[in-house]
Automatic annotation (TrEMBL):
GO molecular function list: DNA-directed DNA polymerase activity
PROSITE patterns with a match to the protein in the record: DNA_POLYMERASE_A
Basic and acidic residues: bias regions: 1-13
Organism taxonomic ancestry: Bacteria, Pseudomonadati, Pseudomonadota, Alphaproteobacteria, Acetobacterales
Residue ranges constituting the 3'-5' exonuclease domain according to the UniProt record: 342-535
Residues of the DNA-directed DNA polymerase family A palm domain: 704-910
Enzyme Commission number: 2.7.7.7
Protein name: DNA polymerase I
Enzyme class of the recorded protein, top EC level: transferase
Pfam families: 5_3_exonuc, 5_3_exonuc_N, DNA_pol_A, DNA_pol_A_exo1
Gene: polA
Sorted UniProt keywords: DNA damage, DNA repair, DNA replication, DNA-binding, DNA-directed DNA polymerase, Exonuclease, Hydrolase, Nuclease, Nucleotidyltransferase, Transferase
Record's catalysed reaction(s): DNA(n) + a 2'-deoxyribonucleoside 5'-triphosphate = DNA(n+1) + diphosphate
Amino acid sequence: MATDRENADEAADKAPVQDPVTAEVDTDRHLILVDGSGYIFRAFHALPPMTNPAGVPVNAVFGFTQMLANFLSKHAGSHIAVVFDASRSTFRNQLYPEYKAQRPEAPPELAPQFGLIREATEAFGVARVELDGYEADDMIATYATAFAKEGGQVTIVSSDKDMMQLVDDRIRMLDPIKQKPIHAAEVMEKFGVMPEKVVEVQALAGDSTDNIPGVPGIGIKTAAQLIEQYGDVETLLSRTAEIKQPKRRQALEENAEKARISRKLVELMRDAPLPCPMDDLRTRAPETGKLAAFLKTHGFRSVQHRLRLDATGEVPLSRPAGPAPAPAALSLPEQGAAFGPYETITTLDALEAFAAAAREAGVMALDTETSSLDALNASLVGISMAVAPGRAAYLPLRHEGTDMLSPAPEQLGFEEAARVLRPLLADPSVLKVLHNAKYDLEVLGREANGGFVVSPVDDTMMISYSMDAGRHGHGMDELSRRHLNHQPITYDEVTGTGRGRKPFAQVALDMATAYAAEDADVTLRLWQALRPKLREEKALVLYEQVERQMIAVLRDMEVAGVRVDGPALKQTGAEFTERMAALEKEIHEIAGRPFAVGSPKQLGDILFGEMGLQGGKKGKSGAYSTDAATLEELAASTGHPLPRKVLDWRQLSKLNSTYVEGLQAQIASDGRVHTDFSMAVTSTGRLSSTEPNLQNIPIRTEEGVRIRRAFVAEQGHVLLAADYSQIELRLLAHVAQVPSLLEAFATGQDIHARTASDIYRIPLDQVDREARRRAKTINFGIIYGMSAFGLAGRLGIGPAEARGIIDAYFAQYPGIRDAMERFKEDARSNGYVQTPFGRKLWIPEIASKNQGLRGNAERAAINAPFQGGAAEVIKRAMVRLPDALREAKLSARMLLQVHDELLFEVPEGEVEETTPVVRQVMENVATLSVPLAVEIGTGHSWAEAH
């Protein structure tokens, strides 16, 4: 017995074709001429970069193939051809050398696609027309005119306004974006004249896009009025004395020759040679084997599916399935589309229909609704999807009743829905667009949530971050307000707040749909708005080669986690507690009485009130400030032991609460902690980590070592730590081009000893520990814009002596001062600085009227290129290492990234093979004026690996 869906399909198959290509044609002779060149560039700029299995760019090929498949599955014409430009130079360039001279060469990633698009045309069995010395427009005009003279009807598939001069009762156009026919009325609306007068209007108005001069000061509207009055350009130019407006008359008289040349440039040739006989344009079925091979070679599975080549081996050219919109990926953003109402998907038919729409569009925005912000423990409650602005839906999967008494709402069974979702989410020809994709990929990848593979992926958060790090936040709501002028529904609005907040699984489906589907809709619109800007902002390479690739890398690292020895950590906590108690006792003895060491107010009263130490400053609350900077300064300037003891106590207290108690609470059932790497938080491009934060474990203190001892390898494995050596100083040498520093890094000298030798003018072999310590302090301090006052505090010397050291430093290395000043000027002029690799890092407060904020911004402008450059170097390495290890057939897993260090878990038997692979990749990810160097160590704990 046939299902309702099968009956519907059969009815659709029998229904008459009502598509905009053929609906108005009343003859058996119908020629469709497709402006192939126009489609190539539209597809290239509308679709994200994609490559075929051989690594060749194919986004324009894919878009063109979608378009051609759409036409061949619908039209009933007798003839069809795709027309291409054969070369840049035509007879028009000989007539006017400046014609189209300003147009740039094709982007390098588009150039290899021209030939593949021609192959696609032939694979579909469609005639391909092109001729050296003539533009595609001329060939279209010639074929259209010839076919119409034979009594046929012609449809020109193009939005090129130049072809509107061809429109008549037998020739019409079809706008491929709007799928709207263009007749004489539409031409009149566009140019103010009928089609036969279009060339006259264009000759006067000119066209800056094609470098057609026209007459300066005359636009389309004025030109149309003049042509309506005088009939044509020549008549107008012969009667300029009749024109009453002096400036207009002068412009026409002085530019008469330009108007005549412009007319020759815009008029299409209708009698060019015909490279293909008309009979060769007849519609014919393709060789299915050849077409299937082409689609398979380039990974175009969605087109195979649509043409049923993957199922039946036949192309249903004679079985149109009814009207279908142009692929959404090739459409302009529908800015006017309303945000909702949206669809709630509760049946299998509805889900399959939405999946088909996603395959038709080639792009789908995706978002998950879950039970928790912890991706590795969250339960999937539902999925929202969008295939076009305003066309979004929510698929509930695990909703419960709105209270204990109400039943669960109607929804698809999880496994039933998964059977449709699994192939769709993995389909390489459907781009999945997400916001903060790493979270959703981890949720969907959990076996408990279906174990879905999602690929390929674009991330609107990382697209924004690649262009605007430091400029603003990159949350979806903020980007929606900024770029779409739309405030999305908030989570609090649908779940409530505080004690009254309900789990999302208990939100009524109408409210859940309004909230969740809107997120997918907003994500898709953000993608349409932001994706094209990557190229304009020169951030495309950064996004494609680094940030986009990092999503999967970090997902795998978070899922892997790192093992923590719970008993050892507990013992460390006991020792910290004991030491804190001892320190507290010493502090009380120095203060002369007991007090709450953790109380800033009580500490301030003792230091500045009872002890009378100088330098105390009260805040708005009336209490003395006792932050770390104040205590550091106090310890350096007075030598009093109390501030230093309190700093030591605070450090222990923080380490104990954050890394002992905190880590113990975060050890998962697998014995490992799974930190969350934040990808779009810092202003410099660096990663940060939370739950737990592993970025702030002290590196060289005994306490930090004790905590790192608790991070251990699985049995039979070791931890391998690979740390970039002095990467920011190497970037400084590269940017500033300091000869002695370049030499030092090239020859492997101790960079701090060399700096001491240079600024103190002493032989390298006579540099002592103190001189080296001072040089090291200024080497690192200079990258952070350290002042003489700051250096004095770090070295325990007077400000005048510190100023002398800084002056000597800049006198020896003038290139460094020049680079610093250049960074500050760049920030003031542009609002941003750039890393050595071109990433923009925005400095919002650089123009602040507040001197303190402006000073901080200037220091940030100095430091950001080095921190940002170091971040990009290690990210490049992280992107390449997983593949390099797999290619070497090694089992090492990358677990953590902390500043300039990567931590791996390696089988004991593979350490010798893994070490050179890691070193080779990390030291060769960037080409600088100095070599990159990596220090590698191994051990059963993180501490031992250093």
